[in-house]
Amino acid sequence: MTGDTTKEEIKIRPFWYSDIWIFPKLINIITTLDAEGRVNAAPYSFIMQYDVMSKNPRMILGFRQDSHTYLNICDTGEFVINCPSADYIEDMMETARFYPAGVNELEHTRFTMIPSRKVKPPSILECPQIAECTVEETYELPKSNGIVIGKIEAIVMDKGLKDLDRGERIKAMNLPLGLGDESRRYYYHSVNYDTVMHELADPPDAYRASDAVTSMEWDTDALQSLMQIPPGVRKLVTDQAESFAKEKGDERVTMARFTELAEDAGMDEEFLDRFRSKSDPRKRA
Ligand SMILES: Cc1cc2nc3c(=O)[nH]c(=O)nc-3n(C[C@H](O)[C@H](O)[C@H](O)COP(=O)(O)O)c2cc1C
Predict the structure, then answer these.
(1) Which atom of ligand 1 is nearest to the CA of 93?
(2) Whose CA is nearest to atom 30 of ligand 1?
(3) d(CA 159, ligand 1 centre) in Å
């Protein structure tokens, strides 16, 4: 805060999103192969989760249309998202330099290539969190970005990380946050940041039937099961169940369909338990 809350309008210039807008983002190194099988690596931060369900987990990515990474992804349909820890920021920045096509940037860093499990481009050993992806769709926005929607074929992490609770996992991974650049030259990152945790507590009566907003008829037992779903994910489950029932040609959501969807989408007790508060009696110890 400057202490002065009077507002001023800022001119929107090219690269406004990094030069002026502060937009903290996860830094990722994408590894790809070109049509001749040569490795390419470069950092990208325009990457977000796109579909949260486990059946079809996807990421959406934004690229300059002429970057080697984008061209390779269009040519081969495969890429790997590697998240480096803050100990490797220098190496990550090295991969951002404008090397000619065919140069493997990783050879100019301390990173070690390892085989990926489900795709051909290599993964990076020193990255604690990795997503191996295939292309589902690409969009070319005129004179602008290339947008890629990638399907996650495998999530791979350093052994033991998944068993840590989130606070410990954040510390152990020590992922740098990208804070943007100035003039495409000076890149800012945040490392070893302090974290704050807030519990999003359920409102009073959160489990009441009236909280469920349904758009079609539900059988009583299916509705009762819906009420067991924690409020944080109940809307998502309602929408999924109704589309699933409609896809199958049903006019109402039956218990049989609801159970089929739950099994199909991996919504078992372990899934539901993750969204229950620590004080919920149904929470497993
Ligand atoms: C931290 C960081 C994040 C970046 N994020 C993106 C991005 O999301 N999209 C993009 O097109 N370029 C991004 N860049 C720029 C590319 O990494 C850079 O243009 C690189 O040279 C492209 O390499 P390639 O042609 O081998 O793919 C980023 C650079 C850095 C340093």
Answers:
(1) 31
(2) 43
(3) 29
- Best mutation site among 64, 106, 190 for ligand 1 pocket (most ligand atoms within 8 Å of CB): 64
Pocket test for ligand 1, best of 44, 106, 109, 186 (most atoms within 8 A of CB): 44
CA-to-CA distance for 147 and 141, rounded, in angstroms?
7
Report strand pairing: 47-51 vs 145-157.
unpaired
**What is the band of 236 on the pLDDT scale with cuts at 50, 70, 90?**
confident
pLDDT band at 204 (very low <50, low <70, confident <90, very high): low
pLDDT the model gives residue 203: 67
Q: Which two tokens stand for residue 37?
A: 């099988």
Residue given tokens 């269009």 in the structure block:
74
Distance of CA 260 to the CA centre of its chain: 27
* CA of residue 40 to ligand 1 center, whole Å: 12
- Which residues, in sequence order, are CB contacts of 59 under 8 Å at separation 6+? 47, 48, 49, 50, 81, 131, 133, 149, 150, 152
| Domains in the chain, CATH or no CATH each | 16-190 (2.30.110.10), 217-280 (1.10.8)
Ligand 1 neighbourhood includes 257 CB (under 6 angstroms): no
Residue burial 8-39, b: 16+ Cβ < 10 Å; e: rest = eeeeeeeeeebeeeeeeeebbbbbbbbeeeeb
Comparing CA positions, the residue from 118, 138, 139 lying closest to residue 130 is 118
Residue 81 pLDDT greater than 90, yes or no = yes
Does the beta carbon of 89 sit less than 6 angstroms from any atom of ligand 1?
Answer: no
Q: Is the CB of 65 under 6 A from ligand 1?
A: no
Residue 243: partners with Cβ closer than 8 Å, 6 or more residues away:
none
